[in-house]
Amino acid sequence: MDVDGSCHCGQITFRAKVDPKLALICHCNDCQITAGAAFTFSIPAAEGTFEIINGSPSKYIKTTADSGRHRAHGFCSNCATRIYSASVNTDPIQYILRAGSLNQRSQIKPNRQIWCNAALDWALVDGVKHITKQT
Fold it and tell me: Which residues pair with 129 in a beta bridge?
C-alpha cells in the first residue's frame, strides 16, 4: 500500500510503501513515554521505500529499555510530531512509521499488540491479538 503523511505543521512530508497486515500497537514503557500516550500505533515501511519529501526530521537516539539496542526517533523540530523510529547501525535501516502521521491512517487497522505486560490496565484493545513480549 502506498502511503504519505506529514507532521502536524506540514514542515515535514514523506511517503512510503507499507503492508497493512504489519500494523501494530506497542505498549512498552518507552512507547508510552515518548508518545505521551497509553501506546504507539505503528507500521513498518517496506525496505528502501521510506522517503522524506520535504523538511528534515530532528533525531533523538534512544537506548531501548529491555534490549539495550539504539533506536533513532525522527520528529519535527517545529511541532514535535513523531514521524518514525529506526534502527541505528544496521543495514538496511528499518523504519517504523507512526501511523497517526499517515494520511491513510483510517485505512490501517492494527492486527497485534505487543508488550502487553506493560500495558495500562485499561489500554488493551479488544479484538487485537495480545503478545506479552516482542520476540
Answer: 112
Residues 39, 120: Cα–Cα separation, whole Å: 9
In a domain, 135, yes or no: no
- C-alpha 98/C-alpha 19 separation (Å) is 14
Q: Are strands 24-26 and 112-114 parallel, antiparallel or unpaired?
A: parallel
Number of domains the chain contains: 1
Q: Identify the CATH number of the domain in which residue 15 sits.
A: 2.170.150.70
Query: In this predicted model, what pLDDT tens digit does every residue of 55-73 receive, in sequence order?
Result: 999 999 988 766 778 889 9
pLDDT beyond 60 at 134: no
Q: What is the pTM of this model?
A: 0.88
Q: What is the extent of the structural domain holding 80?
A: 2-130
Residue 90: pLDDT band by 50, 70, 90 thresholds? Answer: confident
83 in a structural domain:
yes
